Structure formats: structure tokens, C-alpha cells
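Extended Data, panel c. Modelled sequence:
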Amino acid sequence: MSLKEQLAALKTENASKIPAGTQAVMAGDLQALGESGIVERAPKVGDKLKNFTLPNHLGETRSLSQLLEKGPVVVTFYRGGWCPYCNLELRAFQQVLPEIEAAGATLVAITPELPDESLSTKERDGLKFEVLTDKNSAYGRELGVVFTLTKELVGIYQSFGIEVEKHNGEGQFDLPLPATFIVNADGTITCAFVAVDYTLRVEPSDVVEELKKLVHSPV
């Protein structure tokens, strides 16, 4: 199954478990977020992606500028290991990691989760690529791909057994949109996927195809 098919199946399964009233609140929140213009303000193809210097679970820092010295970089944001849609995406990226690396690119995932939490995600999903912590969503906010959960949504998430503060830190309810960027060696974004709906993600196989185009494009 493609990632799109897996996500759709999960969405259908979850919809059968969530009360209609709760679904209505969540849908209304998504609509409001979409109408806020956050996607339109996000980085686009042709933009230079701002540099980051972020720690991995070992406390070692990684910067975009350093990674770009090796070639293109795929940067993908995910909400947290508590999000089943994120886990599907991360595992799907892991499956195509050899192809990403064969194209001379590096894949990194960025999350607001604290290092201990991101380590749990990395180990559970068997991830062989870097997972970096964007503490307090500072970098994501710079890019304009971060929003703050409403009190209503915080309550709904808690009813699902999701304690966002446990993952992100006390008082931290900021989350990134589903966002993936392919950044060429010169720092220019060549492909950008940004969505309001957290059940939608870029198809990793499409990322691989875009990277192959970069490899074979004339210098």
C-alpha cells in the first residue's frame, strides 16, 4: 500500500471510534486553521530554506548548512510519536531511505518532541535517519509552519490519552503542520509539501523521484 492509502485507511478506522460531536470540533478547527493563511505563508519552491542548528537525541547538533555540503537535504516535520499518522509517514520514509541516500541526499525529521521522546519514536519505528528536536517549535515558527493547539483540542487530545506537554515540555502546545521540503545543495527549495490536514502527508516515493531529477539535472 502507498502511504496515501495507509493514511486513508487509518483515517476511516479512527473516524469510526470518534464521537460525531468531537469530529465536528476537530473539523471546525482544521477549517479555521486553513482559513488563517498559514499554508500560503509557508516556504515555497524557489525560496531559500532558513538554516537550522538543532540537537538529535544524543545532544549532537546538526545544521542545514553542514548537511547541504554533502548534497540535497529532505527536511520533514512531524508532530510527535503519539501521532499514528506521523508514525506511518516516518516508517514509509525509512523504507525509501536507501533510495534517498543513493540519490546523494540526506533525510532529517524535525519534531517539537523532547530528545527522550524522539529517541523512543526513533527506536520504535526503527529509524536510521536523524530525528532532531525543535525545542518550543522555535525553528518551525520561524518558517511559519507551526500553530498552537486550542484549549478545546488540548482537551480532546487528553481524552484520547495524548498529553502533549509530556512530549513537548511544560506549557508547550505548539505543533508543526505536515511539511516536507526538498532542499538543493545551494539551499533552494525544489519541492515543498505543506498541509493543514494532519492526515495528509507527502508520498515518500514522490520525494525519491524528485531527488532523481536533481541528480540528473544539468549543472
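The two ends are 36 Å apart (CA to CA). This feature is highlighted in the accompanying rendering.
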